[in-house]
DNA sequence: CTGAAAGCGCTAACAG
DNA sequence: CTGTTAGCGCTTTCAG
């Protein structure tokens, strides 16, 4: 026999009915131990493996869709990994989609694949609320980094993260911070900016906002550096690490020393943040755990669990590294860097001493 | 009607038989244009969409498995993206698996999912040759970054990349280079080391090899820096950018200036390489194109095409940045950095002037 | 070119 | 606990 063995083959070999074989594999316990043993033995001998394909009858594809906006963004690496591992443990497989920060592509793909999956994980979705809600009516959906009523969501504690960052900055003497925004369609971006305004109000500092960076990359951040200088803020908080790093590089290029003239804080604590010089102060979230939590909740929903109406908020912590420092006496003058050789020399000397953690 | 419409619904609405609807969707041309139009209209009206689920009969799942060793590695980001986009264009979906550099996990996962996909893309697989070959007998398989007879493969031109790097280094006066190795089970690692030995022989320089870094990350490279110093080579070529960056950071930490005392070359030109200071000289490969090419070939094979027996070799180019420089008169003395304040000051001053590209 | 009918591999009633 | 039977939605002979 050259085709893959089916339950019928196994049934025949084990001397039982096909449905019994089906039960033996699909719902352990509904078959006498002894019979089950015979079945498994026969299956083993024939090399039978339960098909991952959905029996048309049961819609159990054991597959989840994971939609990310940009695979290339290291931020998603850990989320995907966490999701993947959790899925694997729960016996699920991940269908991957990256949508290039494009809501239309996201809709299309999702619609096309929706039938094939048991649940959907939307990460930083750029789709409209209503589109997501519509989808959530058809299938279990969990959204990451986005809050919308009626759909279970998992968020990082943006408010606290921003708050910590601002406190850190004020402790260093800063009283004006510029926010370098991310994509306009990003819920997270809105949440961070809002949190920053609130924190600024409470702590009595001034804030400005520049951007958006619709593609929140190093490159985009780099291009915003000049604007940062013109705001004459002594501190910046960026939408994410990539943008923050771009800003650091841009400022450096303009001769504005970080952190001597301007302090920079990122968000996400991706591996990038330890590579840049000076290493980036950033808000860390448990990315891998987020991915895993999302999958676990999704699978629970598939299993019939009723998700909590309240979003799950993941804790954050501020990782202080060397891109933030005491506010210097004089602000950088607008549109003009003030860096000179002596300041860069001291920075370099410091860099040799402290090194990376 | 609340369930998804089926071909039967469409058939009824269009006044034809279900089989005709099936044909209209599955094999264009086998149905009279006029009839097809009626069918599509009815389908449209009912909101019928051809199911992504495999009809039991046709094994056409329109799904491909993409297996990577570590999603977190930015190297894969572009490959995945290229693969994803090509797949999307060809109407395929990607099932993702990351195997944590673990051959066993890779085998398990693959076996479990094999039935559900029409083809498999193995990226930098850690599985044994025989395991891969066995799989290739059951399904179309394309391997990336690995060469083995009988299985179509897509490789980067490691030999040329290494050769270029070595030439670059010799032009700068270096006559001894240390290779910081990657994972032992990596075919690519072997290929690069071999290429290095050959190039070294032809160009008459000395080579050493340290490692392996089974998890080829920044961290691993960092840990190898001290060993690099003890080899007293003035140049190092690392398995990949991450390791190279780790080496740079480690050397810097040890007070060994890059590139003044030691030049460092990476491989892959990932986005990391532009973040590190000094920016990394590295061998670039068209990652996204690789992913796309792999998928296109895989789909062609699924369609019955006979793959070429010869591997497809993707071109490389050396991206010269600032981590490589003229060999200094004096080598670093073994186990002891020689960096002093003046050298770091000059390095820093330089960094302000040139900035990133 | 199109209809009728027979399954693909598996699960889910429903009886025993 | 297990066998029988009837499909899931679609494709594919096989006849018209």
TrEMBL record, chains A, B:
The keyword Membrane does not apply. Residues 324-357 are annotated as: Disordered. Residues 342-357 have a biased composition (Low complexity). Keywords: DNA-binding, Transcription, Transcription regulation. CDD domains: HTH_LacI, PBP1_LacI_sugar_binding-like. InterPro entries: HTH_LacI (IPR000843), LacI/GalR-like_sensor (IPR046335), Lambda_DNA-bd_dom_sf (IPR010982), Peripla_BP_I (IPR028082). GO terms for molecular function: DNA-binding transcription factor activity; transcription cis-regulatory region binding. It holds the Pfam family Peripla_BP_3. It comes from the Bacteria. Residues 5-63 form the HTH lacI-type domain. This is Transcriptional regulator, LacI family. The lineage of its organism: Bacteria, Bacillati, Actinomycetota, Actinomycetes, Micrococcales.
